[in-house]
Known about the structure:
Structural class: mainly alpha
Shape: rod-shaped
Distance between the termini: 51 Å
Amino acid sequence: MMNWTYSLSNHMLALLILGGTLAISIGGLLLLRRPIYNFFRISRATDESVNGFFSGVGVLAGLLLGLVAVAAWQNYDEVGRLVSREAACVSTLYRDVSTLNEPAKHELQQDLKDYLHYIVEISWPAQFKGEVRLGATEIVTVFMGRLAQYHAATDEQKLFISKALDSFNQLAEVRRMRLDAVEDGGLPDVFWCVILAGSLITIVMTYFYHLPTMMSHIVLTGLYALSLGLMIFLVASLDNPFRGDVSVTAQPYVNVLNSLELYDPEKLKGKHFH
């Protein structure tokens, strides 16, 4: 999908796709109906043959669009779960390091806060443009260095260090998967070429039906084009989970950032909950 389309609002994208599909289908019908009718001798007798061909081509085109739409939604949903998992890993890691002694505790907590701020304020706006910023990589590397240098004084702290290392490894894994999802982008260009070419072929095939009036032909062709345009719009809006109006947001990270105090036992001492 062309990059400039991601800057459009959902309403503008819908208007562009539906309006373009409608204009192409009706414009083509106005230009080609008479030549097609005369050259191919279109009549009621030819409708049965056209029905057979249109059914076959329509099924293939509809199947392709349907499968691509389902795949796009599954990818969008999977990326959303990936983002939630990364935010959950940060919250778990923050809780683990909150059991350590100062000054390591404060330093490690601050690293995680910096990481969340970087994701929300820098990474996400960059991802919306299709870019990957690696500043957060430096933050997690510094965090790992501090954690590796911590010397546990008790068996309990050794246990929490072990848990923190497991949480860190999970965070690093999920983070890498998120970055890969950003770099992979949307559907390959070949998919869009096939989708658009297949849609155009099915629209042209509607010109071969014999209808008594031009107006009835325009209405039926227009309705078919709109239904086709809606499917294309659905795929386009879900094409890239990190870009466009319908995209995965950084809200899970914001939620964790706003509730970090709840993950530190020391800060909750003396508080009463109802």
